Amino acid sequence: MLLDNKKNEKVGDELYKHLTDGSKLSVISGMFSIYGFASLQKDLRQISGIRLILSQVSTANNASWDLPFPHLVGDHFELRFKNQLTQAHIAKECGSWLREKAEIRMITNPGAISQNLFHVQGEGENAIAIHGSSSFTCTGLGYAESDRYHMNMCESDTTNTADLLEWFETIGNDTSAVQDAKELLLKQLANLVKDQSPEFMYFLTLYNIFKDVLDDIDEENIIKTKTGFKETLVWNKLYKFQRDGVLGAIDKMEKYNGCIIADSVGLGKTFEALAVIKYYELRNDRVLVLCPKKLRDNWTVYTINDKRNLFSMDRFNYDVLNHTDLTRLQGRSGAIN
Hints:
The structure is a single chain. By secondary structure, the chain is an alpha/beta fold. The chain has 2 domains: 194 residues, 2-Layer Sandwich (Endonuclease, Chain A), CATH 3.30.870.10; 115 residues, no CATH class. It contains 14 helices and 10 strands. The strands form 2 sheets. It has an 8-stranded mixed sheet, with helices on both faces. Strands 9-10 form a two-stranded parallel ribbon. A hairpin with a 5-residue loop joins strand 5 and strand 6. The longest helix is centred in the C-terminal third of the chain and has 17 residues.
């Protein structure tokens, strides 16, 4: 029987019919998500046990194995379940069930197995096996709308189901191909349950906002070193975070012809702006500073020999206009006619 999660029945519905009291479940799956568990939670709780082999494991952080199962909280098709904000509760229930019922292994060579398998052994020789493209997620079981075209075959013939179970056990018993992963999975589930500090949530939010541009801020690609910019006094007076701000500002000005520096009070926006100005002066560009009249002296001081000028050696040469004078047709704005 064909299961495609659309026109020809769903994988989850077929499993539902056979997950009875005392049945045994054997699964090879590329992904496992807590929402896949939640969709069949009531039926999964009554089985006698599950043997789970996970075949797609993240090796990006292989040294610490902090997140070996990146799809544990669902794929992007399961977003509506994430938005229900029940993640911690479901993760706790899933962890309790796995701790009690599961043997969990993972493939040591991710990608070595491309097929997924669900094998349910009932009483006697009563068994079914579903093999194909669907993994143990809400999407794979057919309970999350997606644009994927799944193709799975459901076997109930005794010979075929026995052969597929033998294939499962061959992999599961090969110590060179699999290793125990129960504690790793339970640890990752525990991290979903525990309360996170405000600091962690803050940095996590920042990372997700800026992760796509972190690699873009590359000094060598942004600054033209032949200008001598890195030898200037203003650059060497900046803190690391201010230098990052300057690099980001220059990069955005080159790409988009503009940038807003919006740091909080006291973090050195003026010094960052002066560094940006110096960079463009060194490239022989003309620079105009527009400022409120009351702040005029704050900017002109850096263009003259004055003991208040911390960067007198950098010899700034920009013009300063009061932006309130820009509506006048004639007259002087400071020293400029």
